[in-house]
Fold Glycoside hydrolase family 5 domain-containing protein.
Amino acid sequence: MATITIRVQAFRLVAVLIVSVFILVLYLLRQPTHSIDSDVNIETAPELNADASGSRWSIGRAQLWYASQPWLLGANYLPSTSVNVLEMWQDQFDEITIQRELQWASYRLRMNTLRVFLHVLVWMEDSIQFFKRLDTFLDIAQKNNLKIMLVLFDECWNADPHLGEQPEPIPGVHNSQWVRCPGQSMVLNKTSWPILQEYTKQVIYRYRSDERIFAWDLYNEPECSKQVHIVLPLLRYIYSAARSVSNVQQPMTIGIATWPLSTRLALFELSVSDILTFHSYSTLVNLMQNITDLRQMEPGRPILCTEWLARPFGSTLFTHLEYFQSEKIGAIQWGLVAGRSQTYYQWRSPANAPMPKIWFHDVLYSNGTAFSKLEERFYFELNH
Ligand SMILES: *[C@@H]1O[C@H](CO)[C@@H](O)[C@H](O)[C@H]1NC(C)=O
Ligand SMILES: *[C@@H]1O[C@H](CO)[C@@H](O)[C@H](O)[C@H]1NC(C)=O
Ligand SMILES: *[C@@H]1O[C@H](CO)[C@@H](O)[C@H](O)[C@H]1NC(C)=O
């Protein structure tokens, strides 16, 4: 009896061992399955796209690219005559103003870079016209030695963009008519996402080796609309679409806009960006801490601050620019010319607020006079 029991137990043990080894082998051989919609593991997300064209740049490639760039200094740009991005790219496209203002950026402030937002609705309406205007803009930028970072999507401000005539700015209110891209109806409607995918692919494919563009910012502040659980899957979907384009010569990035860096969103952004970009409207001490954190999370990657400058918050040209320059951190402030977006008013400024003594963003009046002569001279002497 005893020997039989021992044999049965030994047999069971061997069987369990064989099954365990079999399961382990299966586990080790498993193919990562990746469908665009699936909630992929953040840590492995970039590797899942590791085909020849579509993987994240190595640190070495990113560093090599950055070494070939000057210290990038510039502004987020909306023509002073545009109330929002739709007005910039639709029939109101204002070539004369763009020419004038890009000359100021280049020759008076010695900027070499602009960050510019696009809008999918304009592309949907007439992609040929959309690309024609974008080419015109890029030509003007090139003539003025300004390289462009294009932003494909944006989750900030008004949720319901419409083509056609845009509303007038609300007096006294900061960025009163800025619109998200896509609007909330498309974000919520997965059936419409392939349109966003097609736009992403077409725009990146067309300019993938165009020297007028220096980088792709795929999605501005995905957390801005306070619905990360909805936007994150879309962000991943857009990211996959962007990476599916082969031979893209410019780095891709999704900017960090909120700390701490341990959120699902921040971890995703950090794990897919070729170059690190972030936003800070705070003091230099805060910003330096932010940069320390970024360097700790993703050592060795070039860093650009793609939104800053809020004078009343202690984020000024005098406090920040020399630091950016000494660390070769790209510096792209909010706003160039004070215009219909009214970003010289503070966030949450009430309707009919008086013109502030200290501007929030922006550096020039629409007639070209500088908000501060000292600032203008500071720029001019800094970057040469
Ligand atoms: C969702 O998007 C699809 C594709 O654009 C469109 O045909 C459909 O009407 C949309 N559904 C809703 C509820 O808006
Ligand atoms: C980074 O800067 C933001 C303000 O822009 C601040 O709220 C945040 O605490 C900073 N992060 C660290 C680690 O200091
Ligand atoms: C430009 O506009 C500002 C503000 O309206 C005004 O103070 C300044 O005198 C103007 N400069 C010129 C050269 O017209």
User: Anything to note?
Assistant: Residues 172 and 352 are 4 Å apart (CA to CA). Strands lie at 73-76, 113-117, 147-154, 213-220, 252-253, 276-279, 303-307, 330-334. The longest helix spans residues 2-29.
